[in-house]
Amino acid sequence: MKVFKFGGASLETIERIQQVGKIIEANASGKLLVVISAMGKTTNELEKVAQNYFMRKREIAAQLLFNIEQQHIQVAQSLLGDREHPLFTQLQQFFTEAEWTLGEKPLRSYDYYYDQLVGLGELLSTAIVSAYFNQVGITNTWVDVRDVFRTDDNFRDANINWEITELQVNQKVLPLFNTANIVIAQGFIGSTDQNESVTLGREGSDFSAAVFANLLNAESQTIWKDVTGLKNADPKLFPDTIDIPEIAYNEVIEMAYYGAQVIHPKTIKPLQNKQIPLYVKCFLDMSLPGTVIRQDVDDRKLPPIIVLKKNQVLISITSRDFSFITEDKISEIYEIFHDKKIKINLTQNGAITFSCAIDNNPEKIELLIKALHGGYRINYNEGLELLTIRHYQNGLIDKLTKNRNVLLEQRSANTIQMVIK
Predict the structure, then answer these.
(1) CA Rg, the chain, in Å?
(2) What is the model's pLDDT at position 203?
(3) Which terms are listed as keywords in the entry (predicted)?
(4) Strand 182-186 and strand 140-142: pairing?
(5) Are the beta carbons of 306 and 388 closer than 8 angstroms?
(6) Taking 80 as the threshold, does the pLDDT of residue 264 lie above it?
(7) What is the DSSP letter of 46?
(8) Is residue 342 a contact partner of residue 368, using CB atoms and an 8 Å limit?
(9) Could you give the CA distance from residue 210 to residue 192 in angstroms, rounded to a whole number?
(10) Fewer CB within 10 Å, N or C, the chain?
(11) Sequence-separated (6 or more) residues with CB below 8 Å from residue 249
């Protein structure tokens, strides 16, 4: 058993969908579970539907949804040719579900409606790809992952109920391999015990594949991307990046924690727990070796790993009575951040000041300031960046911070982090 995951970039054009078919066909001799994301920028477009609906701009939301429907019907027709194919009825059912949501008044949280609408993209893409593959002889079975992945109701960042999900994988997914070697499922989505759709966090399709790999005791998981493998930095931000042929689970967890966008932060742990290797390969050229992520890789062979998080805010919190920031106050501050669902990217505290870097989310920052206002004074700087270097070298630090102001710095034996302006 192997698990493959294909992201939206691999489905952006008809030619790329056909290329995905070639990759699957080349690996179809064994059992293969394939997790597929929404096509291209569909998730972004569905987010606009959710935003307009929640702002009670229903006509705009309905028009945006109609545009998405037409785009997907056009792709399906280009691939299948036959408008009488049962796929088109299935697509219509998905859009009818979304239209029912748009017909309601938004009485619940935005996150709830986000999940009812935005997860549509994965259902559409997988249904189209599955039907096309069956038509060209790549026999497969399609499964609605909402019938498999049971979660809590933490909308937009739902947590898997592993016990129930494992039971449903055994009952509903494993038997499908008795009739076909290939099963196609969605990433990113699941459902509560009330059958309400949820999403697992942005870029959660990697994690979905890891959940399947863990519960199916897969031989390996492969994430197919439009890059040649992992690099030591984002090539869009830094010149002269270096390929990383192999890297340990723990190192990738560190990279993800510090903000690297290549692998979803939650993806690694389910694989590490069962020692399942994770391959990152290029769907544009399947012959390239890519990167393997596994246990026991010597980190002394790694180049410096650079992660840059943009759009950061540095917040400084001081008690109104200028008393020391002791354990009780730190505990209170952390509790407020937790309550507002704000992730702290870097912290540092002095005698009377607690400082931290967070992502710039104006709505959440406003709520945070209101919650802290009673006992604390707050100052903050916007428009900052958080630079993290693993396995750093002094010359590299000087190069990357030249002509920049370092507002906060933390350094350990392996890692340096700086908030820079």
Answers:
(1) 23
(2) 73
(3) Amino-acid biosynthesis, ATP-binding, Kinase, Nucleotide-binding, Transferase
(4) parallel
(5) yes
(6) no
(7) H
(8) yes
(9) 19
(10) C
(11) 268, 271, 272, 293, 294, 295
- Tell me the DSSP string of 195-246: --EEE-STTTHHHHHHHHHHHTT-SEEEEEESSSS-BSS-TTTSSS--B-SE
- Residue for token pair 């909402």: 146
pLDDT-derived band of residue 419, with 50, 70 and 90 as boundaries? very high
Q: What is the mean pLDDT of residues 33-50?
A: 97
- The C-alpha atoms of residue 3 and residue 65 are separated, in whole angstroms, by 31
Burial of 246 (0-12, 13-18, 19+ CB in 10 A): middle
199: β partners: 189
Least confident range of 1-15, 27-41, 257-271, 365-379? 257-271
Give the span between the Cα atoms of 261 and 246, in whole angstroms: 17
Q: Which residues contact 164 (CB under 8 A, 6 or more apart)?
A: 150
pTM (two decimals): 0.87
Q: What's the pLDDT tens digit per position in 203-235?
A: 789 999 999 999 999 999 999 999 899 999 999
